[in-house]
Amino acid sequence: MTGTDSSGPSAYAAAGVDIEAGDRAVELMKEWVGKTRRPEVLGGLGGFAGLFDAAPLAKLAHPVLATSTDGVGTKVAIAQAMGIHDTIGFDLVGMVVDDLVVCGAEPLFMTDYIACGKVVPERIAAIVKGIAEACVQAGCALVGGETAEHPGLLEPDEYDVAGAATGVVERDAILGPDRVRPGDVAIAMASSGLHSNGYSLIRHVFFREAGWALDREVAELGRTLGEELLEPTRIYSLDCLALIGASEVHAMSHVTGGGLANNLARVVPESVRVRIDRASWTPPPVFDLVATVGSVPRADLEATLNVGVGMVALVPPESVDAALRTLADRGLPAWVCGEAEVAGSEVGDRVVVEGRHPAR
């Protein structure tokens, strides 16, 4: 008769899954998750589901829930290569919650999912720390998540992150194309850099074509390439909610993959065309660097990256001053970048980007 030595590793551990490491990761992240707590959150971390008391929503006349989910994409490869894991959470949260706020919704709560080749508790806790700090910036609670160990599918130092969030908005306050009118003014809000989109192109240009290393000092950037590429995504949620509260806003667009024109077109009705003036802003140096080093045509660059604009609001002319003042008071660089007009009978794009960016 053969038996199993109870003092040896479990069969699951022998297969590469460390349950004790997972438990330790949960203990390390509790402090950071606690910082995101809102009064509506019920219970603590470690349950099968996150609980959020919906009773306060009864104060709304007609509450509508909004939901969004996303990941970070290949930017995680930069974090892994640099061994810096506490900023990638800002990219995750920004990609998710700022898709909610464009319809006017207040982000309420978020959950995350981390898949990794091996659970290293300190690394998982660092990732969650970034997610939690970003949730605080967005005003939403981190109510739960999942860490999954996938040995054999992912290498020990590899991981990927994803998340989902839920928000709420009054039905008659939902922003979108139906509110946009000719004469509306487009207000651009500055990005913090590349954000989290187009990193397949970025990595191809700098690593495969140019052969640059992450620790390369780049004069145009004033820091290393890796530091620039890992710059966290700006989170706009509370800024945009403040904007909505201080002035009339008809629509907003979160500029992510696909660039400014393609994302703005998603909130512009067929009867309206928006003209964007490139001369109204100078993109940060990293965008010119991508174009120059990779010989990337301007059309491809603008169809992939945000070129310095992370969010756009369409407001009536009488709201422009209040809108710009509100954003300035919050320390968010913003400017008038274009105007909506009647689309006309000819077939054409709903967003036209024209002119040239000013020379540096």
Automatic annotation (TrEMBL):
<dbReference type="InterPro" id="IPR016188">
    <property type="entry name" value="PurM-like_N"/>
</dbReference>
<feature type="domain" description="PurM-like C-terminal">
    <location>
        <begin position="181"/>
        <end position="344"/>
    </location>
</feature>
<keyword id="KW-0067">ATP-binding</keyword>
<feature type="domain" description="PurM-like N-terminal">
    <location>
        <begin position="63"/>
        <end position="169"/>
    </location>
</feature>
<dbReference type="Pfam" id="PF00586">
    <property type="entry name" value="AIRS"/>
</dbReference>
<dbReference type="InterPro" id="IPR036921">
    <property type="entry name" value="PurM-like_N_sf"/>
</dbReference>
<protein>
    <recommendedName>
        <fullName>Phosphoribosylformylglycinamidine cyclo-ligase</fullName>
        <ecNumber>6.3.3.1</ecNumber>
    </recommendedName>
</protein>
<keyword id="KW-0436">Ligase</keyword>
<dbReference type="InterPro" id="IPR010918">
    <property type="entry name" value="PurM-like_C_dom"/>
</dbReference>
<comment type="pathway">
    <text>Purine metabolism; IMP biosynthesis via de novo pathway; 5-amino-1-(5-phospho-D-ribosyl)imidazole from N(2)-formyl-N(1)-(5-phospho-D-ribosyl)glycinamide: step 2/2.</text>
</comment>
<dbReference type="InterPro" id="IPR036676">
    <property type="entry name" value="PurM-like_C_sf"/>
</dbReference>
<comment type="similarity">
    <text>Belongs to the AIR synthase family.</text>
</comment>
<dbReference type="Pfam" id="PF02769">
    <property type="entry name" value="AIRS_C"/>
</dbReference>
<keyword id="KW-0963">Cytoplasm</keyword>
<keyword id="KW-0547">Nucleotide-binding</keyword>
<dbReference type="InterPro" id="IPR004733">
    <property type="entry name" value="PurM_cligase"/>
</dbReference>
<keyword id="KW-0658">Purine biosynthesis</keyword>
